[in-house]
Amino acid sequence: MGTITFTEYDGTSHEVEFADGESLMELATSNGVPGIDGDCGGEASCGTCHVIVDDAWIAATGPRSDEESQMIEMSPECAPNSRLACQLKACAGLDGLKVRLPEFQM
Ligand code: FES
């Protein structure tokens, strides 16, 4: 258990409680966080769950897979700390994680 904070492009924040093993995409969609659609169901093939990890949490979230990187690089707001929320699994080590949503997902 823990919390993750999603911040929309306009600054609106949503603090969401998680159970270990849920993906950030699942957390966002089940808690009504706008801007994360998860159209492919978590297969890293739609790019509708793009989040940008807070600089302080880059190491904790680990590296992207090649598949994830390929999808993110097609995004108009690709950043070095961009991730697909479906590929990030909530766990105790990510308690307190902060991510923000890119402008194009408003
Ligand atoms: S839900 Fe489709 S890429 Fe994450």
TrEMBL record:
InterPro entries: 2Fe-2S_ferredoxin-like_sf, 2Fe-2S_ferredoxin-type, Adrenodoxin-like, Beta-grasp_dom_sf. Residues 2-105 form the 2Fe-2S ferredoxin-type domain. The keyword Secreted does not apply. CDD domains: fer2. Its cofactor is [2Fe-2S] cluster. The keyword rRNA processing does not apply. Belongs to the adrenodoxin/putidaredoxin family. This is 2Fe-2S iron-sulfur cluster-binding protein. It comes from Paraconexibacter antarcticus.
